[in-house]
Amino acid sequence: MDVVIAAAPYVMGHETLIQLRVLDSTTRKAAEKRLSAAEKLSAIGQMAAGIAHEVRNPLTTVKGFVQLLQKQVSHSYFDIIVEELDNAIKTLNNLLQVAKPDLDDEPSVSIHLCPELDSLIFLFQEKLYNIKVTKVFLDQDKQISGKKNLLFKAFFNLIKNALESIEGKGELTIEHFYKDGVIHLKFKDSGVGIPEEQMKMLGTPFFSTKNDGTGMGLTQVFTTIHQHGGSINVTSKLGQGTTFHLQLPANHLCSAK
Ligand SMILES: Nc1ncnc2c1ncn2[C@@H]1O[C@H](COP(=O)(O)OP(=O)(O)OP(=O)(O)O)[C@@H](O)[C@H]1O
Ligand SMILES: [Mg+2]
Questions:
Q1: What pTM, to 2 d.p., does this model score?
Q2: How far is Cα 47 from Cα 205, in angstroms, rounded to an integer?
Q3: Fewer CB near the last or first residue (10 Å), C or N of the chain?
Q4: CB 18 within 8 A of CB 8
Q5: In the structure, which protein residues have their CB atom closer than 6 angstroms to any atom of ligand 1?
């Protein structure tokens, strides 16, 4: 808990007393932290989105011309060129989606999160030979109002990270429960954990410790959860695992246009 203690002299008749005020500033501190994280994201995001937009257009044109050439001349390199261009365009599209979510005009709908989580886990079937997935889904009737695809992608990114953090055998537990107007989701893995000094980097665009990572996964997660009026708390122990605890207001209107 964060507290602010303020002392002030207080004269009462002939006596001078000291008035002590003890304020719980936990909520204020958390709000400040969230705000500065959101500002950081929006400044870097806007710059990145501008660049992504400028680079994507010429790449799309190049791809079109390569495909035209491919019709006239045959060469095995063309397929590789088109594939690599597709990868680059996909990365830029991902970047644009998280940095400029207003490009996405998906409507807000009422969503039951448990079936969404179920279908996501199903997507990772072939990765689950060595990893035991436990689902603790309570209060399944509760709904949130939000953008299904954005949320789906955010949960996908969290599960992907959790599975990637596990070397060999391990466990992933996903919890869903409702308390006081808020839906809680926990993604708890038994993976490698996150070093203390990297914790504050989580969610920063392009921060990645993986050879093939884009570092955009958690940026998408943080942006989406904040847009839905939610918050994220991460706890981790090296060598033991990491928990991402999401809190989403049950009936919040998403701010992504
Ligand atoms: N569950 C987790 N356990 C351990 N480390 C994690 C976990 N989730 C995220 N991280 C750390 O945070 C970094 C950033 O994650 P993020 O999802 O943004 O990018 P990435 O996973 O590296 O790349 P991409 O999502 O594009 O594959 C990761 O590289 C990893 O170091
Ligand atoms: Mg990731």
A1: 0.71
A2: 11
A3: N
A4: yes
A5: 157, 161-162, 165, 189, 191-192, 194, 202, 207-210, 213-219, 242
